[in-house]
Amino acid sequence: MEDKVCLAMGGDEEAFTYLINSKKEQLYRTAFAYVKNKEDALDIIQETVYKAYISIDKLKESKYFNTWLTRILINNAITFINKNSKIVYLEENELKDMSHLENKSDEKLDLLYAVDKLEEKLKKVIILKYLNDLTISEVAKVLEIPEGTAKTYLNKGLSKLKIHFGKELI
């Protein structure tokens, strides 16, 4: 993977395309967790890919590609939310059209909305840890915070969710 990143940093478009394709599901899950809307999530991903493409040469170390790309995505998602500052209400027929939500229980959707109501710093850690399957160390690198702080935010967020649902979640 690092070889592909090095090639992409050198201007190889095929290597860049390969890298983005390998991360597209992770990018989508993260974007959707922020905006709860398929089209908006895809717009955020498109903007992320564009920004990554034009600035890949500024990436300092190839081993941090995933962290770098995730940070761009999170910044784009937050900018999008702040810019549009709208609440998206999903209707039952819209939920049926979203293939990524098929076979998901109402409880999982409730969990996504509960996570969305957490403080931003807690929400970021939970999304990165559980939707992107990152380790605490990786979460800390993406958010540029100490590992101890990431653990604290994770525990606070999980505690608030546990109180909200009245049971153990994860």
UniProtKB/TrEMBL annotation:
Task: Please list the residue ranges annotated as the RNA polymerase sigma-70 region domain.
Answer: 20-86
Q: Which InterPro entries match?
A: RNA_pol_sigma-70-like, RNA_pol_sigma-70_dom, RNA_pol_sigma-V, RNA_pol_sigma70_r2, RNA_pol_sigma70_r4_t2, RNA_pol_sigma_r2, RNA_pol_sigma_r3/r4-like, WH-like_DNA-bd_sf
* Residues of the RNA polymerase sigma factor 70 region 4 type domain: 110-161
- GO: which molecular function terms? DNA binding; sigma factor activity
* Gene Ontology terms: biological process: DNA-templated transcription initiation
List, alphabetically, the Gene3D superfamilies matched. Answer: 1.10.1740.10, Winged helix-like DNA-binding domain superfamily/Winged helix DNA-binding domain
Which keywords describe this protein according to UniProt? Sigma factor, Transcription, Transcription regulation
SUPFAM superfamilies listed in its UniProt record: Sigma2 domain of RNA polymerase sigma factors (SSF88946), Sigma3 and sigma4 domains of RNA polymerase sigma factors (SSF88659)
Q: Does the keyword Glycoprotein apply?
A: no
**CDD domains per the UniProt record, alphabetical:** Sigma70_r4 (cd06171)
Q: Which family does it belong to?
A: Belongs to the sigma-70 factor family. ECF subfamily.
Name-wise, this protein is RNA polymerase sigma-70 factor, ECF subfamily
